[in-house]
Amino acid sequence: MNAQSRENHIATLKKLRDEYRSQLDDGGLSDLDLLIAELEEVREKGLTVAEGARMASRALEAIASVLTLVTNVCDWLK
């Protein structure tokens, strides 16, 4: 994961967390916070290719989970 991708993932995760905080349970919020903290921590250290791929995969899975939850909730409320 390059620096720009990492920054994009951090910004997206923070925006999702802030925007949909009321729709996420405590476990989901803590998972997002942990992932954001890990991504921010890696700014100072380098990552191996495998670690970068793992972090990118976790970030994308988290984004997909939040979007799925929000989409399903929105459909249910209609």
Q: In total, how many beta strands?
A: 0
- The structural class is mainly alpha
Query: Helical segment tally?
Result: 3
Classify the beta-strand content into a percent band: under 5%
Whole-Å distance between the termini? 39 Å
What string, H for helix and E for strand, traces the elements in order?
A: HHH
Describe this structure in words.
- There is one protein chain.
- The protein has helices at 3-19, 26-41, 49-77.
- With 78 residues, it is mainly α.
- The chain has one domain (3-77).
Short description:
The protein has 78 residues and is mainly alpha-helical. The chain has 3 helices and no strands.
Give the helix/strand layout.
Elements: H1 3-19, H2 26-41, H3 49-77
Keywords:
elongated; mainly alpha; 78 residues; single chain
